[in-house]
Description:
Elements: H1 8-21, H2 34-41, H3 45-57, E1 61-64, E2 68-71, H4 76-116, H5 119-134, H6 139-156, H7 160-168, H8 170-184, H9 189-206, H10 210-240
Antiparallel strand pairs: 1-2
Protein name: GntR family transcriptional regulator
Organism: Lysinibacillus capsici
GO molecular function: DNA binding; DNA-binding transcription factor activity
Amino acid sequence: MPQPKKKAYQVIVDQIKEYFLNGELQPGDKLPTERELASRFNVSRTSVREALRKLEIKGFIEIKQGSGSFIKTAESHTLGEELSSTIINTEKKLIYEMLELRQALEVECAFLASRRATSVDLERISQALDMMDQGKNDVELGIQADLSFHHNIVLASHNSIFLQLFQTLSEHMQDTIRATRRQRLEDPERTQETIDEHKKIYLAIASGDANQAKQLMENHITQIRRELTESLLSHIGEKNN
């Protein structure tokens, strides 16, 4: 079902918030005139006035008669907090959606890899594991090793469609791995546990135990989702205390 089209005033509200987030607008800055905003967004001045009223009600701007509209200095943190919350929630949603995709894709690939992997495939997966060991104290190396590990399992499935899908989504996959590793490795003890999880998956694939490989990959991704949920709830609890 298509998303309902945003009203003109909401587009303006969202854009002004984005300008603030990007640093193009600072607390105390004066907004363009109604005429300039109407021209910039190709909307009526009525829509501009409605947008400004919404922002004023939320305490994001102050409208001074005869002077114009200004980003409120005292309340600017409110806007920042709302934007940060929106961004965090959006990122969380995307991460969860990517994990759902990974669960569908990689669980099956682990199953297939355990039946189809060649000695070359197994060597590539093993090399990725070695890189993960080397990347314990190197964030970027760890991320690349993690991505390589999962990529090589997809390669080992010898399913060209799965491989194309993984490669198409590799940039999003990398962002997701970066975010989930950041959550998981806040506790140094989780570093080795994470590597051990990957080693168990590799050993199941190498031994040809398809059901075990499938189960371990499913457990791995499910655990990541559980930890992300716990982390989110923990942050919400801290904020409310």
